[in-house]
Amino acid sequence: MATRFSNWLDARTGWRNVWDGIFLRKVPKVNWLYTLGSASLFIVVNQVVTGILLTIYYVPTPDHAYDSVQYITTQVALGWLIRGLHHWGASAMVVLVFLHMLRVIFLGSYKFPREVTWFSGVVLFLVVIGFGFTGYLLPWDEKAYWATTVGTQIAGTPPLIGDLALRILRGGEELTAMTLARFFGIHIWVLPAILLGLVGLHVYLVIKHGISTTPKREENSHE
Amino acid sequence: MSEEFKLSRRKFLEKVTVGIGGVLTALFGIPAAIFVVKPVLKKDESSGWMRLGSISKVTPGTPTLFSLKVERETGWITDQDEIMVYVYTEDGRDYAVMSNICTHLACRVRWIEERQEFFCPCHNGVYDKQGTVLAGPPPRPLDRYEFNIENDDIYIKVG
């Protein structure tokens, strides 16, 4: 029955080709550092799932943001777990993508033909930083408020464009409900759209090119 | 022999991959379901006997509207909710205490003095002064509250 159904589906979607392309790739003999990308991808899934769940109770206005977060943490069943996974997942994400980047640099994986994979990874890293920056404000506690005050103030320091940059980030001159609302919008709509698109490209390229091998020292090359 | 071994190892790894995927889906899915569903199972209305008002305000023969402020906790917000109740008596001895919530789809009914009927504007439900259905889609009479009259005051059981 299951086989008949999977045959029926394969005849119409060709899913087995996709499945084999993802899971039956030839993988060179590499070390555990090569799992950092997969680990980052897993955290992406974690952040997407827990982030979507949090929006069911979270309300991004100054009147409700702090109380709704407290409500999630202390009243909602498993709210502490969902918020905790999102909170710690965010930190783990920054650490993992940074280590992943170091691995790619030091083992030379960014070289031909993987330059586009590298470029998309660079943008992905910036997107992750953007997630961290916008997400930090959302609990709307003292730490969030003042961290964002400082962070947006830094955007205001360059000459000529600084003032405009600060106003665009804050949605005005001061850090207000406007700031909270736009940080929320950026955090749950703008950045996820960019992230998921680039992750798709990034993973497609990894599968297309295969995993790079560890660099080998060639005989005679240092003479 | 070696062919057979390779095949079984591949099958094994495939099963492990699918298995890990299933476990991870469950690890996310079950807490997610609890997170979404469990808070809605909590009763959020304050309950118990509450004073509705003075019985002397009820004019015999005409349903009289009373309103009652009830404290309601929804999530992290506590606010006041108003319950509207019609009290009707024919003779000043037997009382009917009716909810103003239409039994069809929970719109609010109102007493129309000229027609001597309760009317629900959503789907034209009509009830008589005792709350019995006269016309339209309501499946049953207006809901009644349990009540108690002490001295001059009428109390109803909320929740």
Question: How are the elements arranged and paired?
Answer:
The complex is a heterodimer of chains A (223) and B (159).
Chain A: H1 2-13, H2 15-23, H3 36-54, H4 65-74, H5 79-106, H6 115-137, H7 142-155, H8 162-170, H9 177-209
Helix pairs in contact in A: 3-5, 4-5, 5-6, 6-7, 6-9, 7-8
Chain B: H1 2-37, E1 48-54, E2 64-74, E3 77-89, E4 95-99, E5 110-112, E6 117-120, E7 125-127, E8 133-135, E9 147-150, E10 153-158
Antiparallel strand pairs in B: 1-10, 2-3, 3-4, 5-6, 6-7, 7-8, 9-10
Describe what you observe in this structure.
The complex is a heterodimer of chains A (223) and B (159). Chain A has 223 residues and is mostly helical. Chain A has one domain (32-209): Cytochrome Bc1 Complex, Chain C, CATH 1.20.810. Helix content of chain A is 70%, strand content 0%. Chain A has helices spanning 2-13, 15-23, 36-54, 65-74, 79-106, 115-137, 142-155, 162-170, 177-209. In chain A, α3 packs antiparallel against α5 (79-106), α6 packs across α7 and α6 runs antiparallel to α9. In chain B, the strands form three sheets. A four-stranded antiparallel sheet of chain B has the order 5-6-7-8, with no helix packed on it. Chain B has a three-stranded antiparallel sheet with strand order 1-10-9, with no helix packed on it. Chain B has a three-stranded antiparallel sheet with strand order 2-3-4, with no helix packed on it. Chain B is elongated. Helices cover 23% and strands 37% of the residues of chain B. Chain B folds into two domains: 2-40; 48-158, Rieske [2Fe-2S] iron-sulphur domain (Rieske Iron-sulfur Protein), CATH 2.102.10. The mean pLDDT of chain B is 90. Chain B is of the alpha+beta class and 159 residues long.
